[in-house]
Amino acid sequence: MAGVSGGRIETAALRQNLEDQLDRLMTQLEELEEIKGDMDQSEWEGIRNDTLEELKHFSNSLDKMLAGDMTLVDQLSSLRLATRAAISDAFKTPEVIRMFAKKQPGQLRQRLSDLERDMKFQKVSAPKFHQQKTEILSALKRLGDKITPLEEDYLSQNMNAALGLLEEVSEQIIGEDVIKVAKQQVNNDK
């Protein structure tokens, strides 16, 4: 079966498993945020730290997979970047991380629209609005989605250090992946 499909079926299954694992971890972070007030602070921090530790292990596994199989580079780069964003606290909104990891610019645009509506009707605090809007715009930009000059200005004015670090890390990841692909192509040509 692997010979007939050229590994495409196995790659798709692996990618789905990885997306499911990331979804589970992001859901866990979301639910933790929702019940934060109902838990003892130290207990909440312990569970959150455990989840972040799982994300670190997940990220390390992705790194190892990408180092060994170049056909997965493009498909798994966004997952790796999303897990690093979650670990570094660049994105504080698990829902945004999930949409970013799944490369869903349409859903991110919808979330931005909903967020702006909620702000208009004062259903969300100003700090939360600014944080999430910045995260969404940053994710859209990283996914190559067209952002308007007004959105670009908003992003540059509201970019925090963590999101700036994410930009640097993502450029580094892309650079590393390009180098790996180039090396493999050189080796294949020999």
TrEMBL record:
Keyword annotations of the record: Coiled coil
Pfam families linked to this entry: ICAT (PF06384)
Keyword Glycosyltransferase: no
Residue ranges of every copy of the Beta-catenin-interacting ICAT domain listed in the record: 115-188
Coiled-coil ranges from the UniProt annotation: 8-42
Superkingdom of origin: Eukaryota
GO molecular function, a single term: beta-catenin binding
InterPro entries reported for this sequence: ICAT_dom (IPR009428), ICAT_sf (IPR036911), LZIC (IPR040065)
Family: Belongs to the CTNNBIP1 family.
Protein name: Beta-catenin-interacting ICAT domain-containing protein
